[in-house]
Amino acid sequence: MTMKTKNVKTNIIFNILKTLSSILFPLITFAYASRILAPTNIGIINFSISYVNYFSLIAALGISTYAIRECAKVREDKNKLSLVASELFSVNFYMTIIAYVFLALSLIIFRQLDEYRNIILINCSIILFTTIGADWLNSAEEDFKYISLRTLFFQTLTAIAVFIFIKRPEHFYIYVIITTSSNILTNVFNFFYRRKYCSIRVLPPSKLNLKKHGKPILFMFVMLLSQTIFSNADITMLGLMHSNAEVGYYSTALKIEVLVSQFISSIVFVVLPKLSILFNENNYEKINKTLSKILTLFLLLGIPCFIGIQILSEEIIMLVGGSEFAGSVMPLRILAFSFLFSLVGGSFLGNIVFLSSGRENKYMIICCIATAVNVAANAIFIPKYGAVAAASSTAACSFLMMVLLILMCDKKVKVKLNIKSIISIIVASSFLVGSTITFKYLLKDNYIIVICLAIPTGIILYFLVLFFCKNELMLEGISYVKKHLMFIYPNTKEDKNKKVIKTINSYKKIMNKSIKNNNYEKAMAAINSCALLLYDFNQTYVDYELEEAVVRMANKLKDKYNQQLQNYVSNGSILLYDGFSIPDRGVVKMYLNALIKNNYKVIYVIDSSNKKYLKEIETEYSKMITIESFTTKDKDKYLKCFENITNIILKHKPSSMFFYTTPFDPSACTSFAMFDGLTKRYLIDLTDHAYWLGVNCNDYFCGSREMSASNQHFRRMIPKEKCIKLGVNLIFNDKKLDVPFPFDLENNRYIFSGGSLYKTLGDPQNTYYKIVKHILDNHQDIYFLYAGQGDDSELKKIIKEYPSRAFHIMERSDFYYMISHATLYLNTYPMFGGMMMKYAANAKVIPITLKHDNDSDGLLIDQSKRKIEYTSYEDLIEDVDKLLDDDNYRKSREVLLEGSVITELRFVNNIKTLIEEQKTDYEHEFVKIDTSQFINEYYIRFNYKEAMLMTTNKKNVILISSKPSLVKYYIIKIIKKIRGK
Questions:
Q1: Element (DSSP H or E) covering residue 677
Q2: pTM for the full model?
Q3: Average of per-residue pLDDT values in the chain
Q4: What gap in Å lies between CA 415 and CA 287, rounded to an integer?
Q5: How many CB atoms lie within 10 A of CB 844?
Q6: What is the rounded distance in angstroms from the CA atom of residue 539 to the CA atom of residue 941?
Q7: What angle do CA 868, 870, 873 make, to 5 degrees?
Q8: Alpha carbon of 282 to those of 272, 734, 890: distances in Å?
Q9: Does residue 719 sit in helix, strand or coil?
Q10: For residues 503 and 638, is the Cβ–Cβ distance under 8 A?
Q11: pLDDT greater than 80 at residue 870
């Protein structure tokens, strides 16, 4: 079984976020609390925590790190994962009981602990809840996003509570309760969350498989025990051999060093599962490559931290603890060396290399040696030198551990540092030293300003130098951030593909889960979002997973209408569903007129939200047809629309239904799918060049040209007998201009063009605008008029260059008047305007069309005889010049347009035979048309951000709960609307 891979870079970012929150919030709260509670109380608290840590170690028994490694190996098999997790959790649970027994006995026996007893009793609750939380399972699953967000949430709550409730020195008990409660709540939350991965239960001692787990756990325990003694012996021995004040000084310095160390070491738990797998596979090529990058990253982040601590130690201590903690400055500077040695030693070689490779036994020995030396040195020097001695012994033993780990490292592990990267780090560090010392010298009396200016400036300068030195990791990081930053979107074909597929799959996951849970509103929202993206991307013509989901949803919803569906008897009426419900160029009226003239009883279903258009339809047709609206005050709900459409169909029981809607209408698709076998369903294909939704909810598919047939049969896999050719006749009026125009249309010559502006874009040669420029440059009396909306960036350039001769208007109801008075109609390119081309031909205005593969074939009757198409730019330009210069030539060509558009009578007759016999008086040829160039132009034109903004409509807000990343697109949309206003 192939192991699912998780993105290491993403996990590192989330783990660093978690660690930063674990550093920042405790640092802020400690800085505040230390000023309120004073060194003595801080010393008592830290001594108590240090003491409880020993018993936490007994309870944990080294299981956490071992469990991450072992669970990562079996995480693909849920049963195996449950067994391994249960075994390790059970060992952890039994050891927790033993730890509490030892803790209780120690409090009874050692009377020196009386001063700390209450604090210890509060803190020790953490032991049990840490066991219950089993956070190692989330790390094994590499769920660092959850871990990070959870940590950030509870750290924020803790900080707020500390600022609200800690006001006086005697509040140190409350401080302990707050910090302990945060840990408890985190693990309670964890207890419920981890169930998503596997079930964990407490096993009886006889089933713990100690033969397998016992030895490595014991090694881990001894190793961690020595590490804990190494980390905590200083504080414990200071408390017993010196004073609480010295404990306060040292623990404050140690806290700062540990927080910085945690920031760097946050990478450890991210790479541990992956490296464990690589070591298990003996893949040393990848191991060495990965380790080299990790060590470089450690040095890149660690060296500036070391420099910052050395130079700004006084200011840091003043900020964190105040002047009372001046005794912490020297221990902090010494501990900075311990941090640097541990970075290469314990953090990198020990926790990453030795543990990942299963050499915990050797790591344990080294830890024990270093710990023994540390304890001995503390015993000798702490009584006389206090906190400084504790820090010095820690630094010396960290160096010893680093040397021993290097000597005992696996010889197959060969870490090679990139010399250029190391040099860039050294150069950047020198700039960091210079800037930090400068700020400290100039602002030496104000530690807050020094820190506020020196640290941000130093960080920016450090990374800028790395960038200019072309540090490999720095450049990789910038590339990653660019790719994943909120407002940066994919540009390359490969990136677009990956991004769209990933987004579509995420919507489909929501869709399937919602259908399973009977949440049809969310399912339809997900389907709509998928269809919108697929339509805009247009790299495929059908998606069978969406089509199947529509049918599956319809079948589940049938239960509500079971009785009505069983009693469904068609009455011969015809229903026309209009999902657009907007004033168009006559398609709806064309069908309504044909149905009325064939004496059918017609039910026209329209969206009542467009009141102006509804009124227009009612005025013209109310006495001849039944008009039904399918929306109510709940029009923004998919399920409500579905119910309204379904109820209308059940009310009228039509024998045939026409499906005329957008390519992304899940409500109507689901409703139509319910009536399979009860009525004949016809889809009016107006987007034959693009993806649309509705294959599985219709019986017959009407298209007017050969591209319809090609895409329907060869790409949507619709049987030939279901693909019916049906031309269109035109409905238009000759109404005069609605508003005054910048030039007199009747007494001037002009080129008219129109449609959505995206049809003029995507061509690398910008051919359409090249044609327009040629006409305006070479025919000074010609105006250019474009009617349509969309991306007008190229059109604006034309208007700017020819301000008094080129004009852009929106689509208007008097467009036929404008076409009919034009000298020529220029078809858009690389996508043509099918209906506009027919209107021009009907008005005897030559529709100049540059051929783009076979996209425009079959739009006019006997199209090849009309001489409107050109195979090259040069041929088109040559003929256009002649048409504009020679009126007689143009008129001879206009005559050829006679009879090029289907007559109303023929369309009326074809509608009748379509409904009664499922055929028309002409047929498709079914020639497979190559659309690869067409598809590639969609690639070029596709904008992921704009496509996602298109999906963020009111109905789809429901998806945010399952896909929070959508919030940013709604925010962008709101901002755009505000700016627009």
A1: none
A2: 0.55
A3: 84
A4: 9
A5: 15
A6: 12
A7: 135
A8: 15, 80, 79
A9: coil
A10: no
A11: yes
